[in-house]
Amino acid sequence: MNVLHRRSFLKGLAAFPGAALCGILGAKNASASIATPETVEAPALPWGYKELDPEYLRKLGHLGYYAFECGGGAFWAMMTALKEAMGYPYTVIPLPTRKAVINHLKNKKSGMHLQVMMQFGVGGVANFGSLCGAPNGASSAINIALPMGDVKEVVPRLMRYYETTPFPSDKANETALKKAFYPPKYKSDKSLPQSASHSVLCHVSVGGWCEKAGYASGSKERSERCARLTGDISAMGGILLNAHMKGELHTVFPMKVSQETAGCRTCHSKGKKYESGQFTRGMMECGNCHDDMRPHLGENKLKTVYGADIGKWSGAAAMGTAAGLGAHAVSKRFGKGETDNDE
Ligand code: HEC
Ligand code: HEC
User: Fold this and answer.
1) What is the pLDDT of residue 108?
2) Does this model's pTM top 0.90?
3) Cα(257) to centroid of ligand 2, in Å?
C-alpha cells in the first residue's frame, strides 16, 4: 500500500538532513503495524518541505473542502502538495489522490468512503463553532513540515491572516468565475460577497459572513464561501512556507497585532506579573469580544491565590494611555476594525 520512494525522499534531505536520516534508519527497523510488507514506521518529525505553488494549493483546498470540509480539506490540500513535492515520508499518510477525490464527487453514490485526518475540524471542531477548520487543518500540515520553533512563527501569521482578510479572496472569486476550480459541479459559481471576521472562530466567521451576504448558514452559497476560504487558507499556508524557506517570513508577512490588541497585551500577556494583568494569554483581536472596559475604571478587585487584595487599581484610563493604549480603547465600545493597522 505505502511504497517507499527513496529517491524522492533523498531529494528531501536538503531541508532537514537530521530528521530524514533518522527516518531511513527508523524505516529499516520498522515493525509492521499494518500487515503489508511495504509498510514502514513514519520517521520522526519534522519532515521538511519544498517550494509549493500557492495557486495550486488554492485549488486543492477548494476541492478538499468538497470532500472533507474545512479541516480535512485544508489538511488534505497542504499534505497532498507536500506529498507530490517530497514523496516519502508524506506517502505514509493516508491521502486519497486528487483524481480519486474528483471521481468520488462525480459519483457520490458509488459508496466509496473517503476520510482524512483533521476532518474533525469541520465547523469549528465537529460543528462546535470554535476554531475554524481551515487554519486548524493547514496548521496541522505545517506542524508536520517544520520544526516546532518555526511552527510558532508561521502558524500565528496564518491565524492573523485569517482574522484580517475579507473572505473569499478576490483570487478565489476569480478562479470560480473562470471555472478553474476542480469540482465537477460547483455549489455556487457566483462571485461571493466578502467579509473579514476579525476572529478565528467558525461561529463568528460564518455568522459575520451570513449577516453581510444575506445567505443562511445552511445555504449552498455559505458552503461555497467556506470552500473558497479553505482554498485561500491553503494558499496562504504555501506562501508562508515559501517565505520561511527563503528566510523572508518577516518581510512577506510582518506579524503585527492590531494597535488595540497591542495595547491590551502590554498588561495582559503570558507572564509572571499577576497584579499587572498577566493572568491571561493570547493574541486574538481582544476587541472582538471585550468591549466593556468599565472594570478598568473602578477599584482593583484582583485577588491573588492566597485571597489577599492586590491593592488599589488606579484605573486603566490613565495607565492605559501611558502604556500606549490610547483613549479610544478604554471608551465603552470599540469601533471594530478601526484600530487595525495591519494590511
Ligand atoms: C473570542 C472572544 C475573546 C477574545 C477574542 C478575547 N477574549 Fe478575553 N475573555 C473572553 C471570555 C469569554 C472571558 C471570560 C469571561 C469574562 O471574564 O468576560 C475572557 C476573559 C478575559 C480576562 C479576564 C481573566 C480571564 O482570563 O478570565 C482578560 C484579562 C481578558 N479576557 C483579556 C483579553 C485580551 C487582552 C484579549 C486580546 C489579546 C482577549 N481577552 C481576547 C473572550 C475573549
Ligand atoms: C495598564 C494595564 C492594563 C491594560 C492596558 C489593560 N488592562 Fe485589562 N486589566 C488590567 C488589570 C490589572 C485587571 C484586573 C482588574 C481587577 O480585576 O480589578 C484587568 C482586568 C481585565 C478584565 C477582567 C475584567 C473583570 O471583570 O474581571 C478584562 C476582560 C480585561 N482586563 C480586558 C482588557 C482589554 C480587552 C484591554 C485592551 C483593550 C485591557 N484589558 C487593557 C490591566 C490592564
Assistant:
1) 78
2) no
3) 17
